[in-house]
Amino acid sequence: MDMRKMLLVSILLALFAMSTVAQQAKSVILLVGNGLGSVQLNLARSFAGGHLHIDELTHQGKMKTGSANSPVPDLAAAGTALATGRKTNNGLISMLPSGEKLQSIAQLMKGKGGKVGIITDGRVTQSLPAAFYAWSMSATDEAAIAEQAMGAKLDLLIGGGRNAFRPVIFGGKRQDSRDLLLTAQIDGFIVAQTRETLETAQGKKLLGLLANDQLPFEIDRDPERLPSLADMTRKALDEFAQDPFFLLVSGSRMGDASMQNDPASMVMEILAFDRAVAVVLEYARTHPDVLVVVTSTFEAGGLLDGKADIEYLKQVQKSVEQMDRELKWDFSNLWDLLSLDAGFEDLTVEEAQLLSTIDSTNAPYILSTLLNNRAGLVWTSQGPTGSSVPVFAYGPAAETIVKQQDNAGLGMALKQAIQ
What we know:
By secondary structure, the protein is α/β, with parallel strands linked by helices. The radius of gyration is 23 Å and the shape is globular. The longest helix has 22 residues. Helix 3 runs parallel beside helix 18, helix 10 packs antiparallel against helix 11 and helix 13 crosses helix 16. The chain has 18 helices and nine strands. Strands 2-9-8-1-7-3-4-6-5 form a nine-stranded mixed sheet, sandwiched between helices.
């Protein structure tokens, strides 16, 4: 080989090495909106006046979400794909049907000496967050998943789901006598159960369990009592400082709102999630070695694209879930709820006929139907669908991330970004 060819090869190798280094990320922040589809996102964007912080991420794409055994995934399979880069069957958490355990990006980061944090407005033991630190052949066994959380060497875990950590005798749902909050304190965790203690907590490891079950919908949240998803995200970033880390921010409750076909709650959940995105972007702009990815587990609810009555949605003050909870047994306060919390001033003949059929079993359906009819929205499902979902990325490897065709490809690309 003559000198010119050797020089050319050397230059090409150097350029390849530079491009490889440029694609490496010191840290990864993954924000996952459960049930978030493009139509839901467009509705929230319209509600917000045409712009979301998510739109500020520099790269955008779409991906398929099917599991190994179904074109329509559940939360366990979708979470596994994002966490490990491998597809599995519905119902399994970071395991293959053969029993093989899969490595998540969180475990990979921990093995490299980095820190790991998980934030959710759902239960910390639900399938999506669990896929990053646990293995289970049964996604519903949250008591066993809580035990794994204590042994997973997490640096930060914040959300709801306290019941899985406490025995029945202490007000939890564990059938054994183990109090995992005590175990956590013995293992060096600072345990926070209120907003105040979370805000002031300082230590190397933080466990924040702020509700027995999931946190309330954003539309119902009392900001004096409970932090927002953005607040929890800011706390995590403050704790991690300059260390390499992986952080999962799970907007869990927007999926519940979509599957309940509750339009106002869903929009408010997306906007709360978007405020967490704003916190992350503010951090990433001063930390160019941080990869930020925003995506979804699956589309939920099958919301059809159409022109919504945004002004009506802005009048709704409570979730369908909360209104149903407040309904009296004889429905004597039904009109009060509709007029004060759902923007009703009168009823059409059709609405009155629909309300005449209400009972304790169908009240959520009746209420959501009323709200959707007023808002001009149509849903086609009350569960996950197989529709593609949006992907947004910012930082090193962002272009590679948005080119992935499915959730497993995205999960694998996340792992490769820190290797």
